[in-house]
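Local shape tokens

___
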Amino acid sequence: MTGTVDLTLDRLAELPSAARSCVHWELDATAATRAAANGAGALEKEAWLSNTLLEWGTCGQAVYVDGKMAGFAMYAPPAYVPRAGSFPTSPVAADSVILMALWVLPAHRGRGLGRVLVQGVARDLALRAAGCGSESARAIEAFGISASRPPGHPVHDCPLPEGFLAATGFATVRSHRTYPRMRLDVRATTGWRADVGQAWNRLRSGITVPRAAAGLTNRTSQPAPRI
């Protein structure tokens, strides 16, 4: 099996330690500060994931190389992302999910895995739309971090680079010198499949989903071009 696999509770421990305990998006500012001070970030992260999985469903995708997690993405509707309201370009559109985090292990960057993860998120949403119609999210939105932000301007740690989002198909829907809000319509990603053959052939030899995952999900993303 190739592509992405749903990020479940049993896979949470495979995230890098910093990501495992980070609850920047999952809690409001006061609660996140309290969790960090008490060393409770990992427990809060697990509680958030458990609750979101129960109430909304899949909210993360992971990609594996040689049997080890090489990257992950997390996403959820705005109601599950309290910190999103603190950005100057909020609110996120009601028909969208927020791409909260996307991370690729440094050793595997530059191989297109970031776009594979975005495609995995889009595929999950497309499958929901096929089953639920208008009730499903139609787009992915994210708060970018601009490379041209004013020198010394304070920034959040978690937004994704504006350049990466643009390279994976996101378009700016609300400009800002530091935190532009960007959007990718799920329907737009269906055209990626026509361009992915050669890039995936270069990647497929190393990208695998652990055998146990085959029993957990049959929803895998299509590969995507290298970025």
